[in-house]
Amino acid sequence: MTHATIDQALAEAHQRFADSNPASRRQFDEQARYMPGANSRSVLFYAPFPLTIAKGEGATLWDADGHRYADFIAEYTAGVYGHSAPEIRDAVVEAMKSGINLTGHNLLEGRLARLICERFPQIEQLRFTNSGTEANLMALTAALHFTGRRKIVVFAGGYHGGVLGFGAKPLPTTVPFDFVVLPYNDAQAAREQIDQFGAEVAAVLVEPMQGASGCIPGRPGFLQALRESATRVGALLVFDEVMTSRLAPHGLANQLGVRSDLTTLGKYIGGGMSFGAFGGRADVMALFDPRTGPLAHSGTFNNNVMTMAAGYAGLTKLFPPEAAGALAARGESMRARLNALCEEKGVALQFTGLGSLMNAHFVKGDVVRSEDLAAVDGRLRQLLFFHLLAQGIYASPRGFVVLSLPVTDADIDRFVAAIAGFIDVYGALLPRA
Asked: Is residue 240 among the annotated active site residues?
């Protein structure tokens, strides 16, 4: 197959996709009447229209047209257990037998809170929310009140939920806190800027690996510099581990040896249900103690029994610390295979990340911050996405790839073969290494 231009190749891929998915197109057209762009979750949209997923089982998905896919996005890291795990389903059904919304403290929330605190030792106490977005908002609110300060240091490329996204400046939907946006993985700039603002800084909020901007690991020296700088000026260091807590037995920050004051969690810990949590130092979390603290934090579904039951079953029966380590090792092996393949074929395609999370980038050289990806041709990411779909592999249009527990070695072999096939078909359009 030959293609004169990337645009031509992408147009052909779009046409093949549209021709193969009439039911998804109908679904999209019908729903667009009631939702803008038939959408209430922006990350799921892609042109010409997104697939409608009808069913999931294990690490397999089926769309509305009956096509079958190996799932390599796993609900953007929340689906570590795959789809319809019996252990999760049984726990939820059992919890529902005693009532869904009980309007009170229940029998399940305390045991999940204890389990999380024991697993992540930097979390002395915690509170539940319904999402990682809420968890980050509440952690920042805690830092503002605990310190009595207003500035929050964040990093370009950071994503901390739907209302906390950052490029070179806060995105239009970001809440209007007083943010200072710094370059990621630049320890010197962080030290200088945090020292400059000094007594104005309430919190430093950072992902130990930036997820949404392309699986860019934080360098240990950079993260340690943030710890030292926050301590020096009396600010709180907040680690957003909504994604990264799954990357090591006790979370990524713990593995790197950097202790935060507050940590936020979400995604997989709820067993596939809506979940978030924020916690850390007991003296900070005491702000929310209704017996003595000044801060109220409510939410109808914060302690709902379905999430509490699913979360506990998942962490104890399917994803104990040793399982997290094993899944991370499988991801490291897969990424090494992919990068060796790309190097062998001489193309400027690399997979960055840590453990079971990775991202494909059409660029040469080290990727240490989102600015290093500015030259990537977004059309190539789309071309890769549609090629993978045609091979029966469901990943992300931005090149994000996620392993879940049910993914098999055969699935991984199939993914690697699909990347090799992509390079063979479109090699003439790809940048060279």
From this structure: yes
